[in-house]
Write a structure and sequence with these properties.
The protein is of the alpha/beta class and about 400 residues long. The protein has 2 domains: about 160 residues, Aspartate Aminotransferase, domain 1 (Alpha-Beta Complex); about 230 residues, Type I PLP-dependent aspartate aminotransferase-like (Major domain) (Aspartate Aminotransferase, domain 2), CATH 3.40.640. About 45% of the residues lie in helices and about 15% in strands. It contains 14 helices and 15 strands. The strands form 4 sheets. Strands 2-9-8-7-6-3-4-5 form an 8-stranded mixed beta sheet, with helices on both faces. It binds pyridoxal-5'-phosphate (PLP).
């Protein structure tokens, strides 16, 4: 059978390691699932979807909302999302500016489908969340990584960024808090990126999936669109967000894109994406009704999760500070750590690269992390793991990690 060229070499490091881990688990090995950012997967973490949200889903199904819905989303939910985005980010969106999607994943897919033609490029932060690469490639385009500078708290390197914009650049992607670094972009960098985007007339796409999972800086953080709306009122921005993480419902597949477009530059683009949305009929309808309810309730579950995550992050940072061979920038939000494996850079140990290291770690200790090079060129010699598990589990993980590292480094 001839398989379409566009599917050649499709990789997703986060899930690729899971295939090996699952095999080891079937053979009876205890696996620590630190590879995947899923707060409600019981293999990963102890967080749970709040019962009132589950009840709302069940009620929606019982009430008979089991039919195909509007392709753009349930109107009441679109209205609620517009109000919430306006409240949070000082925008002036209306329901019509909101399109419900099957997670932010589908929103990324839609943006790429609408804007990328063979030969085109998109600018994405590197280290990079891998689907940005895959979707660009799927449409015959290329993702070009602008460097996030680890020595500057993983902030965008503006010179590198500026040097990579060209006439093929179709959009610029921002992701803050970032996956995999967990870091928030400083306002200054958002402004500089925004200015360059405006100068070259390139739209911004802002992945805001972790914007409710921010630690110390929660009260002062402003998302890109709220920073840029006054200074660059003509700059079109597609925002993306969803219910997976903040509302602990990853498996429901519910997200949305919003079109912030005061100058009306994206009218045609929006229409094209809406046409595409009609082809896939609609997004999970009972989940949309449950989301309406979720948005009416106080967000105690998010607050509770963030409090717990902060304790877990601090525990991990303390443990890392005791390991000389590794350094790690403190994440401002999300639930990932992206430590630098200094011994790999120095050529110490038996491993040829971060992938070999992560696979050895998995086989030996059962700790399932993701190799840094799976996040592109700027991820080399790192690994990513989540701090979603309980402190008890993280303690076991760090004890195993430390032992493993000591043993291997003295053996070699
Ligand atoms: N964007 C980023 C940066 C993510 O880390 C993830 C999931 O891990 C997604 C998007 C996907 O989110 P969703 O579940 O809404 O598809």
């Amino acid at each position: 059978m001839k398989i379409a060229e566009r599917l050649h070499g499709m990789e997703y490091a986060i899930r690729d390691v899971a295939v090996i881990g699952d095999k080891l688990a079937r053979e009876g090995k205890k696996i620590y699932y630190l590879n995947i950012g899923d707060p409600v997967n019981p293999q990963v973490s102890d967080f749970k979807t709040p019962s009132y949200i589950i009840d709302s889903l069940a009620n929606a199904a019982k009430k008979g909302y089991n039919f195909y819905g509007n392709s753009l989303g349930v109107q009441e939910l679109r209205e609620k999302i517009a109000i919430e985005e306006n409240r949070r980010n000082g925008l002036s969106l209306v329901a019509d500016d909101i399109l419900l999607t099957s997670g932010v994943s589908e929103a990324i897919f839609f943006a790429c489908a609408a804007l990328i033609e063979p030969g085109d490029e998109i600018l994405v932060p590197g280290p990079v969340y891998p689907p940005y690469i895959s979707y660009a490639k799927f449409f015959g385009g290329k993702s070009v990584e602008y460097k996030l500078d680890e020595t500057n708290n993983w902030q965008p390197d503006i010179d590198d960024f500026a040097s990579k914009i060209n006439s093929k650049t179709q959009f610029i992607l921002l992701c803050s808090p970032n996956n995999p670094t967990g870091v928030l972009y400083d306002e200054q960098f958002t402004k500089e990126i925004g200015k360059l985007a405006a100068e070259y007339d390139i739209p911004l796409v802002s992945d805001e999936i972790y914007d409710q999972i921010i630690f110390e800086k929660f009260d002062t953080y402003k998302c890109h669109v709220s920073i840029l709306r006054d200074e660059l009122p003509e700059l079109p921005i597609i925002g993306m967000n969803g219910f997976s993480k903040a509302h602990l419902s990853t498996g429901w597949r519910l997200g949305y894109m919003y079109f912030h477009d005061p100058a009306g530059k994206m009218a045609q683009l929006k229409q094209s994406i809406e046409s595409l949305a009609r082809i896939r009929l609609c997004v999970n309808v009972p989940a949309q009704y449950a989301a309406i309810k979720t948005m009416e309730e106080p967000k105690d579950h998010t607050k509770h999760m963030v409090e717990k995550l902060l304790e877990r992050r601090d525990y991990c940072m303390k443990r890392f500070s005791e390991i000389d061979e590794v350094s790690c920038v403190t994440p401002d939000g999300a639930f990932y750590l992206f430590p630098r494996l200094k011994f790999l850079e120095e050529g110490r140990g038996p491993w040829k690269d971060d992938k070999e290291f992560v696979l050895d770690l998995l086989a030996e200790t059962g700790i399932m992390a993701v190799y840094g090079s799976g996040f592109g060129q700027y991820g080399i010699n790192h690994m990513r793991f989540t701090f979603l598990p309980t402190i008890e589990t993280l303690e076991e993980v760090f004890n195993l990690f430390e032992d493993f590292l000591k043993r291997r480094l003295t053996e070699s």
